[in-house]
Structures are given as structure tokens and as C-alpha cells.
């Protein structure tokens, strides 16, 4: 069972729609503000009812539509406890389970490093890794309480211990790729395969990436589920 994967070309962000054929309940992970109408249209076309809107972390490169989608549909919002997203209905912790349809649940995995509160979500044989584990890469660790040491632990002791057949669905990709597997990333990921903790920390320290263009706008907005503070 695969999710429906949607894409924002401006921020290279993936949004995921999870549902079971024959059932109406659905979950959206990491929606983007400029696409809220698109996402509602997908729900309508598929005859789905949105039950949860989940964030993997407070993104720095786009504004979420989580609050708006919840207002329109009545869905509940969920966000990692450590990300400062106070208005979320569910403050999620490691090991939580989110039941969204009969027999269907997401398992919450705390995977800090890109941000201190970052979460991944495991559903069946799919893991939604946010900015922790990307395809042939990983999220940066130089702002938002990032830690290369914590990220190395998250990936090697939590994500890489999942079944190698588990499909990896990241929050972003910048090279036209859509999905990977835990087994492929363990063997081939350019930042992690064969890399020890010391080498990884040094690699991440020397990336010298530019500051995200929307950082100062996106993070405060996303801490309020993308809604203005008087909404």
C-alpha cells in the first residue's frame, strides 16, 4: 500500500495523502499552503474524509496549510512535541500511535537532528522521514536546534533498524526522485553509507549551506500551523 505523493515545485516539498481503498478516512502529511485547494480537490475526487493533518517538523522553506485544512475539514492536527507547534491538537511523542481507520495506524518515531523535535511516521511498510533521511542524503543540522550527532543516532539506530524493504518517503527531493528503501539508503546514501559518527559530524559541519530564503517567515508561521495569529 503506497501513499499518494504530491509535490510543490517551489520548495521541492512532498505532501503525502494516506488512505485505504474502500475506506473514507485519510491522513495528510506535510501539506503546503499554496496547495490547500489542490489537496481538498484530491480528497473530494477520491471520496475521502480528512481525519488527521500531520507535520514532521516546523519547516523552514515553506508555510504549511495544516491549520487551514483542519478548519475546513474538521480534521485534527498533529505535530512533534519538541517543535513548538503549540496550536496542534496532538502533541506527539516517540512511540505514539495514531489510528486513522479501522486497523490502520501510524507509529510515531522521534528522529531529532535536523530539528530537535523532528518526527518520522511509520505506516505499514512505508516510513515518512521528513528532513531526517532524504534520498541519497539527509537534512541539514545547522539551525533550529539541529545536531549532526543526534541525526546520526536517529538514522542509524531508529530508521536503519527498520526492515530493509521499508519504503522511504522524504519531505523533499531536489533531483526528481520520489521514493527509496531503507536497504538502499543503508548501502548507498552518500552521507551515511560506511560513514562513522565522527566523519558524519565533520561532513555536516562543513556543508556551509545558504540560509533558507523563507526561514524568518516560515518557521513562526508553521509554529502556528500556518495561520495568522488572529485567525
From TrEMBL:
The keyword Hydrolase applies. Residues 12-172 form the Metallo-beta-lactamase domain. It holds the Pfam family Lactamase_B. InterPro entries: Metallo-B-lactamas, Mito_Persulfide_Diox, POD-like_MBL-fold, RibonucZ/Hydroxyglut_hydro. Keywords: Hydrolase, Metal-binding. GO terms for molecular function: hydrolase activity; metal ion binding; sulfur dioxygenase activity. One of its GO terms (biological process) is glutathione metabolic process. The keyword Metal-binding applies. PANTHER family: PERSULFIDE DIOXYGENASE ETHE1 (PTHR43084), PERSULFIDE DIOXYGENASE ETHE1, MITOCHONDRIAL (PTHR43084:SF1). This is Glyoxylase-like metal-dependent hydrolase (Beta-lactamase superfamily II).
